[in-house]
Design goal:
Elements: H1 3-31, E1 34-39, H2 45-63, E2 66-69, H3 75-83, E3 89-92, H4 94-103, E4 108-113, E5 121-126, E6 145-148, H5 154-168, H6 172-175, E7 178-181, H7 185-194, E8 199-203, H8 204-212, E9 221-226, E10 234-237, H9 241-245, H10 249-258, H11 263-266, E11 274-276, H12 283-292
Parallel strand pairs: 1-2, 1-3, 6-7, 6-8
Antiparallel strand pairs: 3-10, 4-10, 4-11, 5-8, 5-9
Helix pairs in contact: 2-10, 3-4, 5-12
Length: about 300
């Protein structure tokens, strides 16, 4: 065996070892890829952490891919994280979901709560106003203080503003003495109950849950009107997850959400179950947002 041939054999073996190690590292790296997801901060942080930590464990088990919940501080931050690819999946409200899908071509709404196809907003009032429940929005709202939730909330801002404009034929700033944005539904309830604002608009699911938990004093705050029904919350996923996890991965995630039966998890939302959703279900939200100019903010 010549020296040149021996060197050639050694070189082949060395390159083969390097190639095997490269493939092992590549395979190990692929196995370590995670799905990061977020959610709009529509309630206090402890509730959200409880809810989405459980969802992360469930989805990780069902899909074989690790899911990690990434909390954010605002509705806008949730949309930005999705747009920038910092997260690949998100639990959005109707409006934030539309914003996110407009920003990411091919993004899909894949699931919603059973209740989300028939969502409503409650208008609530402090007892000192003397306002009581009515089938129609009373003209007695005029000249009072009013708080929405987050500026990016469907149930806390978009739909209530839409109906205020429709009924009063004016913008909220010209209906009320002072208009605020609490940031989330729990804070809206607290602000109206304390009297910091006389009236507020709140997600009916949050109201019902906090009422059940004894956090609402009906001698201080009550529901005075509810909006007509509309479509709201949704799970939305980026199209590029298929590049890392396979062409059928979106279907796998969707099926996992639709198959969720754990009441401990579902009750934290709270929802009876998740059902299929698609982008067309939120066309009315898009049209409403365009009509009142909310996408220009």
């Amino acid at each position: 065996m010549t020296v040149r041939y021996l060197i050639f054999i050694i070189a082949v073996i060395f390159l083969s070892v390097l190639f095997i190690r490269f493939k092992q590292d590549e395979s190990r790296g692929a196995g370590e890829k995670k799905i990061q997801f977020t959610a709009i901060p529509d309630q206090d942080e402890s509730r959200l952490t409880e809810r989405f930590s459980q969802i992360a464990l469930y989805l990780s088990k069902e899909t074989g891919v690790e899911f990690v919940y990434i909390p954010v501080k605002s509705y806008a931050a949730s949309v930005a994280a999705f747009k920038n690819g910092e997260v690949q999946l998100a639990w959005f409200g109707g409006l934030s979901g539309v914003r996110a899908r407009r920003a990411v071509a091919g993004a899909r709404a894949i699931a919603q709560g059973e209740e989300d196809k028939q969502f409503v907003t409650y208008f609530i009032a402090n007892y000192r106003t003397g306002l009581t429940y009515s089938q129609q929005l009373s003209k007695e709202l005029e000249g009072r203080t009013f708080t929405f939730g987050s500026k990016g909330s469907t149930s806390g801002r978009l739909m209530p503003e839409y109906y205020l404009r429709k009924i009063f034929n004016r913008t909220p700033g010209k209906i009320f003495k002072r208009v605020g944005y609490s940031g989330n539904h729990s804070k809206t309830i607290a602000l109206v109950q304390s009297g910091s604002y006389e009236i507020g608009a709140v997600n009916y699911r949050v109201w019902e849950k906090e009422l059940k938990e004894g956090k609402i004093d009906l001698t201080k705050v009550s529901v005075i009107w509810k909006t007509p029904e509309y479509t709201d919350y949704n799970w939305t996923i980026r199209p590029d997850v298929t590049e890392d996890f396979g062409t059928d991965f979106i279907d796998i995630v969707q099926n996992a959400l639709l198959s969720l039966e754990n009441r401990d998890i579902l009750d934290t939302f709270p929802r009876k179950s998740f059902i299929k959703a698609d982008n067309s279900m939120y066309d009315a939200i898009l049209e409403t947002g365009l009509a009142i100019g909310i996408f220009d903010e």
